[in-house]
Automatic annotation (TrEMBL):
PANTHER family in the cross-refs: ALCOHOL O-ACETYLTRANSFERASE 1-RELATED
Keywords assigned by UniProt, alphabetized: Membrane, Transmembrane, Transmembrane helix
Entry's transmembrane regions: 6-26, 38-55
Organism: Alexandrium catenella (Red tide dinoflagellate)
Transmembrane in keyword set: yes
Protein name: Condensation domain-containing protein
Domain of life: Eukaryota
Length: 565
């Protein structure tokens, strides 16, 4: 009966009510179930329906310059407003070094080109972000302001620390630029933007730095009001003054709808945690270690730590060709190598639990350059006893299986807390860093893909992601972020300190780099020559040695890495 009811509401187009049928279907398949849990879920979906109907009645035809937030985004925005969670900084090393004036001018052109980059978080009825039944929360591309561009005259690690601890402004949807020497820092809120969006922004930023204006855009439109500039420039490739439509563009400067609007019926909108819990969270304010007194602590006492490594373009190409020969991908070999390294460094033979982020733009039928948060997640388990290439192929097979079943889409719409945690939100206690046993066998992996970021006058040689852990989650103590820029593989390990000590992270980062070199089939006489290790934890480090040295490492089985004739 629940299945028939669910099909009926889907055919009738009453999508908000589909969640009620899903709850009934879920209840029919799980026994026993708490009556309280059922009514909590049912009440959440009723709230969702009321909110949706109320908004669409007030804005029946919509506004091309506005995009309303789904419940997941409201949930994240509420936590962002309270404790600044999901704030990520991207480090891009540029050649030649950028100047603040040039970056500021290019950023203004980007805001005219992409409405999302000028949008502001707005709400009606004068309440707060954590009362969705009363507030109409939306993004408005005409209410934002110019993006902030800062200049840091300090070390790169200190600049990253400042960017991470300085909360983003909601007036420009939470993104900011900064210049520190040869590096450009782009800090953004992960709820509204993902890594692929950041790479698109960097690509368009280079184009803006390479020319005086947006290629072909009328000067009058650029000097006019923001709304007119958006209508002229958004969603069009302007080449030589000829306007050419781009697949996936939106007319009249309209921002692309959220990815969850295109998801199938089995990925419904989600419920928020209780309003009382969010109100209590707001009343408590930021955690003690985020308050001004804690921010003034010395660098060594803070929790933001990362290790950055890069792999030479030639070796990366060798690795890519070897992956094609073995029937796997760079993401698969990264997960497999990380599994072996962590088993060796941490000293455990337990399976590695990986949470892998997936780009769902193809599933949502979006253009690859669409800005927004289009990330799905899937989990897989890798056993360190298996050979490296077998693990890599297993990783790829599980990803393909998740894509066929659409499970990664369901996880994409889930809030940061699973349902069982929403029911006991007030009772959930996060362990103190000193009480946590360590990183264990959990790893978060995100591979943004391969990009070419170079123009005639500017180029980006390396990109690294740094994520601040705000204490709002007791998972993902170790995150591995990867991307390929102009053929160079860039790796970043982010971790919580003092849960994980510096020596452990350096050992994991160096071990991962060494195994990738061996997996690429680099000859022994070449070894790791050409492998450049980026600045790690405030000091320079260089990965050196030969393939024979790597093979001599404890726990390395050469047969797992040697190419099959």
């Amino acid at each position: 009966a629940a299945s028939l009811a669910l099909s009926a509401v889907e055919l009738l187009g009453l999508r908000p009510f589909a969640g009620v049928g899903l709850v009934l279907l879920w209840c029919s398949q799980r026994s026993p179930i708490s009556l309280t849990a059922f009514w909590v879920r049912f009440g959440g979906f009723v709230t969702n329906v009321i909110y949706t109907i109320a908004y669409r009645r007030r804005h029946p035809n919509g506004d091309p310059h506005r995009k309303w937030l789904d419940f997941y985004q409201i949930h994240c925005a509420a936590h962002f407003e309270v404790n600044g969670s999901c704030q990520i900084t991207t480090l891009a090393r540029m050649a030649p070094p950028p100047t603040v004036e040039a970056v500021r001018g290019a950023a203004l052109q980007l805001q005219r080109r992409h409405p999302l980059l000028r949008a502001a978080l707005c709400r009606e009825n004068g309440s707060s972000l954590n009362t969705p039944c009363c507030d109409m929360v939306f993004m408005d591309s005409l209410q934002g302001r110019d993006v902030e561009v800062l200049e840091h005259e300090c070390t790169l690690d200190e600049a990253v620390e400042r960017e991470q601890l300085d909360p983003l402004a909601p007036e420009v949807l939470g993104w900011r630029l900064a210049v520190c020497g040869e590096h450009l820092l782009l800090t953004y809120h992960h709820c509204f933007m993902d890594g692929v969006s950041v790479m698109t922004i960097l690509e368009h930023l280079l184009e803006a730095l390479d020319g005086p204006a947006l290629k072909g855009c009328a000067e009058e439109a650029l000097k006019g009001c923001p709304g007119e500039a958006l209508k002229v420039c958004d969603g069009e490739a302007l080449k030589g003054g000829v306007v050419e439509d781009v697949k996936g563009s939106t007319p009249e400067g309209e921002m692309a709808p959220p990815p969850r609007d295109d998801l199938p019926w089995y990925a419904p909108w989600v419920i928020l945690p209780g309003l009382k819990e969010l109100a209590a969270l707001r009343a408590e304010g930021p955690p003690a270690w985020l308050r001004p007194a804690a921010r003034a602590a010395p660098w060594g006492e803070r929790r933001l730590k990362q290790a950055r490594r890069t792999l030479d373009a030639d070796i990366t190409q060798r690795l890519r060709e070897r992956c094609r020969k073995e029937g796997t991908t760079i993401s698969g070999v990264l997960a497999a190598a990380a599994c072996h390294v962590m088993a060796e460094v941490v000293g455990t033979r337990d399976p590695l639990r990986c949470k892998v982020q997936v780009n769902i733009r193809p599933d949502c039928q979006r253009d690859p350059h669409t800005l927004g948060n289009y990330l799905g997640n899937f989990r897989c388990t890798l056993a360190p006893e298996q050979p490296l290439w077998e693990l890599a192929r297993q990783h790829r097979a599980e990803l393909q299986q998740h894509r066929r079943t659409g499970r990664h889409l369901i996880l994409a719409v889930m809030p940061p807390y699973p349902y069982h945690m929403q029911l006991a939100f007030g009772e959930k206690s996060h362990p103190h860093p000193a009480d946590h046993p360590g990183i264990g066998n959990d790893l978060g992996i995100s591979n943004r893909g391969a990009f070419s970021l170079a123009t005639q006058s500017h180029s980006i040689t390396a990109v690294h992601w740094v994520r601040q852990h705000r204490g709002d989650s007791d998972t993902d103590f170790l995150l591995l972020n990867a991307c390929s820029v102009n053929g160079v593989l860039c790796l970043t390990l982010c971790y919580k300190h003092p849960i994980v000590d510096e020596a452990t992270i350096v050992a994991i980062a160096d071990g991962l780099l060494d195994r990738l070199v061996v997996a690429a089939g680099v000859p022994e006489d070449v070894g790791a020559v050409g492998v450049a290790a980026g600045v790690a934890l405030g000091g320079g480090a260089t990965a050196a040695g030969t393939a024979a040295d790597v093979a001599a490492l404890p726990g390395v089985n050469v047969a797992d890495y040697v190419a099959v004739p």
